[in-house]
Amino acid sequence: MRVYDIIRKKRDQQKLSKAEIDFFVEKYSIGEIPDYQVAALLMAIYINKMDKEETVYLTEAMMNSGEVIDLSDIDGIKVDKHSTGGVGDKTTIALAPLVAACGAPVAKMSGRGLGHTGGTLDKLEAIPGFSIEMDSKKFIDSVNEHKIAVCGQTASIAVADKKMYALRDVTATVDNISLIAASIMCKKLASGANAILLDVKTGDGAFMKTLDDSFELAKAMVDIGCGMDRETIGMITDMDEPLGFAVGNSLEVIEAIETLKGNGPKDFVLLCETLGSYMLVLAKVAKDFDEGLNMIREAITSGKALEKLRVFIENQGGDKNVVDDYTLLPQASKIIPIKSNKSGYISKIEAEEVGISAMILGAGRETKDDILDLSAGIVLEKKVGDYVNEGDILAYMHLNKEEKFEQAKERFINAYSIAEEKIEPKKLIYGVVTKDEVKKF
């Protein structure tokens, strides 16, 4: 078999076989096919697309290019949740203990943030002493004993995907549904879960900017998961404005804790309740969505979810006292109010610009080697639909680098649109995708 023939075949709009896809992924991952040939193949795929079967073959080949985690020693149905990323998305920190408190095992491998989207691992590491490093025995024992563990993905997972993504990034072949879906799902599938819940963000602060693209991506990923015998559900949720009020690592930890205390922002609470209910159904802990929803709400009101968070933090080396004393988290030396320069109703908040403002303050990375300021970030006071007078406080910026303040402030102010007429906020959840149907709300 020659990669030249595979490139020509896809260039000529023909379907690639499983053997051909396995060949190019395996040989590329071990360095036997050069970048320039894979770049040509990626462009042919980008232009001529892959069908559902080809996409499943590509995902499986990339999954098998590295370590595949075996979680069979963990009791019960392991459910993983993946978000395509956004601004203020601290969901795992609240959701994982919430679902675990209801009896579903949460064995999660998470990533770090890059650009304007935050990473779960960075947020958890704002908790003093918290470690995301653990060997497989400790990981499995933690889930069996406490129903919860979160760690970093090992470098040996989906080796081909890392190489291929770097190449896609510099050859203008990122924005292809099959390539995006395969890249996300090969890592999820290699992480060992029995079932997968996908939170596909849509809007200004999301990777997928339009509803149609978001539904298409969700459907492609659900087809992959189900095609590889993992029960998979996709949800399309809004990221046209930041999720909740807090943007920044330690600030988001506080908001997640407050949510488990029953004091969370309405949009974030709704998201956690909805995702959590579907996770309990996938784990066969709840018979249907409504039963799952009742279990999730009871775990908050009874305090079980908050107690599970304490156990989770302590088990991974962190100081569980942060749950009751937020001063133990990294604190910014300056907290500066940002005021509105006009009166009216907030009609839009560009989530991506808010995320970039927080990144400028030090809460995010422009390059993977940047060092985060875990205390930096932004806490919103007003969101879409709220009325503000000129001079009212829109948000508070938490920072240590004063030289970055003006640049961050300008971007943040420009992210807000204020109109004379009241705008109703967009819905948070746009639909659910299963193997049987695409349901739009």
TrEMBL record:
Give the reactions, separated by semicolons, that this protein catalyses: thymidine + phosphate = 2-deoxy-alpha-D-ribose 1-phosphate + thymine; uridine + phosphate = alpha-D-ribose 1-phosphate + uracil; 2'-deoxyuridine + phosphate = 2-deoxy-alpha-D-ribose 1-phosphate + uracil
Limits of the Pyrimidine nucleoside phosphorylase C-terminal domain: 345-419
Stored InterPro entries: Glycosyl_Trfase_fam3, Glycosyl_Trfase_fam3_N_dom, Glycosyl_Trfase_fam3_N_dom_sf, Nuc_phospho_transferase, PYNP-like_C_sf, PYNP_C, Pyrmidine_PPas_bac/euk, Pyrmidine_PPase_CS
SUPFAM superfamilies, sorted: Nucleoside phosphorylase/phosphoribosyltransferase catalytic domain (SSF52418), Nucleoside phosphorylase/phosphoribosyltransferase N-terminal domain (SSF47648), Pyrimidine nucleoside phosphorylase C-terminal domain (SSF54680)
Q: Does the keyword Transferase apply?
A: yes
The record ties this protein, via Pfam families, to: Glycos_trans_3N, Glycos_transf_3, PYNP_C
Keyword terms of this UniProt record:
Glycosyltransferase, Transferase
An example GO CC term for this entry is: cytosol
Q: Which domain of life is it from?
A: Bacteria
Q: What is its EC number?
A: 2.4.2.2
Mind listing the GO biological process terms from this record? pyrimidine nucleobase metabolic process; pyrimidine nucleoside metabolic process
Q: Which family does it belong to?
A: Belongs to the thymidine/pyrimidine-nucleoside phosphorylase family.
Summary of the function given for this chain in its UniProt record: Catalyzes phosphorolysis of the pyrimidine nucleosides uridine, thymidine and 2'-deoxyuridine with the formation of the corresponding pyrimidine base and ribose-1-phosphate.
Complexes and interactors: Homodimer.
**UniProt name for this protein:** Pyrimidine-nucleoside phosphorylase
Q: Which organism is it from?
A: Romboutsia ilealis
